[in-house]
Amino acid sequence: MQKVFIAGTVQSVKEIRDVGQNKVFNFSVQVSNGKDQSGEWKPSSFYDVSLWNKRGEALARFLSKGTKVAVS
Questions:
Q1: Tens of pLDDT along 41-62?
Q2: Residues 6+ apart with CB under 8 A from 68
């Protein structure tokens, strides 16, 4: 088992949707990879995140594009 920690900026937010008897909230996070040795910006990485049920419903009210977020 592995654990992942992502810290970045929310790039897109989707609405809460029903999946059977559960609810899911999806959004994507952009993580900047910094600069390389020549000073050029490296391409960013993007991660899709899903939050289920009460946690997703609660955070959907606060997350919008541009919000700084950390996900574990």
A1: 889 999 999 999 999 999 999 8
A2: 7, 8, 9, 10
Whether pLDDT at 1 is above 90: no
The pTM of the full predicted model, rounded to 2 decimals, is: 0.82
Beta bridge partners of 68: 9
Structure tokens at 16: 């809460």
| Residue corresponding to tokens 């909230």 | 25
First CA to last CA distance, the chain: 14
Distance CA 67, CA 37 (A): 29
- Looking up tokens 């899903």, which residue turns up? 50
Residue 14 in this model has a pLDDT that exceeds 90:
no
CA atoms within 13 A on the CB side of 22: 9
